[in-house]
Amino acid sequence: MRTLLVPAPEGLFCAEGGFHVDPRLPVPFALVTHAHADHATPGCGRYLCAAPSLPLLAHRLGPEAVIDGVAYGERRGLGGTTISFHPAGHILGSAQVRIESPGAVWVVTGDYKRESDPTCAPFETLACDVLVTEASYALPIFRWDDPREVLREIHAWWIGNAQKASVLFCYVLGKAQRILAGLAELTERPVYVHGAIEPLTAIYRAAGIRMLPTLPVAETQKGRSFAGELILAPITARGLPWMKRFGDFESAFASGSMRIRGQRRRRAFDRGFALSDHADWPGILRTVRESGAQRVLATHGHRDALARQLREQGLVADSICTALPSDP
After folding, report:
1. What's the 3-state SS for 128-147?
2. Parallel, antiparallel, or unpaired for β 6-8 and 11-14?
3. How does DSSP classify residue 111?
4. Which of 96, 204, 233, 325 is the least crowded, having the fewest Cβ atoms under 10 Å away?
5. Rounded distance between C-alpha atoms, residue 117 and residue 136, angstroms
């Protein structure tokens, strides 16, 4: 079987196509699966992404970046390969990259999830010879509850805090907008947001995603009471003077890491909500099975554990490192 991608210092490299996929260092030509910072590296000569991701990448990379977007499923010839982007279900515009060359089809999942999410196109199953899959939560302990039930729990926690503010920490791109969209099925009350969240949420609105109204915290009147209100904030805001304006509040964190027993207590949150934009253990195994891949390469997270499990099932599987050594 032909080798279409190899690990390089800059990231996964396709010599036949002359491109890198989600490079971790600047390269001449980057195919980008989505706009999260650990996948969209600034300084590349040019970028290619799925069209719905283009506004988010432009926001993240700045006006000098040369970015081209193609529709999901549209085939484009690059060197000796034909590539296409397909929905990954991770965040708005997230994509898997399908790379085809005579005698081989490789698929790079990027980050993905199998659960429903009103803010992005659902995951598309792709048949391939080699699957390069993320393994962020590739351990049997990671099994997600119905996200609609988790969002109902978030809503109940918010409503139950009538005498104090509810500060929910979450990732500013993807998770915040998923929460706003999910809560829109339960209420029409506006939500206060940190300044880092508002411009990204505006991009989602421009894409036609229905979410709750948002109010920037920075634009509120000084001394205003936030009792009974929900505030979405990045985890980096925790412990900063910015938090003092909320007075008496409860804190929570929305992340797949909250599935780990004791994690909420160790990190001193009042509540933890296991809401993840990554595939859980059953979702990863299902994806591998449905792809029909003869070989699987696991990357990110618990890649060694996943590769070992797949080998025990009789598959050809290895782990590869696509993150900088300093990355967690």
Report:
1. CCEEEEECCCCCCCCCCCCH
2. antiparallel
3. S
4. 325
5. 19
pLDDT of residue 181: 98
What CA–CA distance (Å, rounded) separates 23 from 27? 7
CB 145 within 8 A of CB 273: no
Q: How many CB atoms lie under 10 A from the CB of residue 175?
A: 23
3-state secondary structure of 269: coil
Rounded Cα distance between 243 and 168, Å, is 12
Q: What backbone torsions phi and psi does residue 144 show, to the nearest 5 degrees?
A: -85, 140
Residue 232: predicted pLDDT:
98
Look up the pTM and report it. 0.95
| CA 89 to centroid of chain Cα atoms | 8
C-alpha closest to that of 192 among 114, 249, 151, 152: 249
Instruction: Say if residue 326's pLDDT is above 60.
Output: no
Percent of the chain with pLDDT over 90: 93
Helix 54-61 / helix 198-206 crossing angle, nearest 10 deg: 150
Q: Which helix (H) or strand (E) holds 166?
A: strand 165-169
pLDDT > 70: percent of the chain:
98
C-alpha to C-alpha distance for 118 and 188, rounded to whole angstroms: 16
Give yes or no for a contact between 170 and 183, defined as CB atoms under 8 angstroms apart.
no
Q: Each residue of 163-213: pLDDT tens digit?
A: 999 999 999 999 999 999 999 999 999 999 999 999 999 999 999 999 999
Find, among 91, 97, 93, the residue nearest to 178 by Cα: 91
What is the pLDDT, as a whole number, of residue 261?
Answer: 82
Q: Which residue has the tokens 């209100």?
A: 229
Strand ranges (E), the chain? 6-8, 11-14, 19-21, 29-31, 46-50, 67-70, 76-78, 81-87, 95-101, 104-108, 130-134, 165-169, 191-193, 214-216, 230-233, 249-254, 271-273, 295-299, 316-319
Helix ranges restricted to H, 102-146: none
Query: CA neighbours within 13 Å on the CB side: how many for 167?
Result: 23
pLDDT at 203: 98
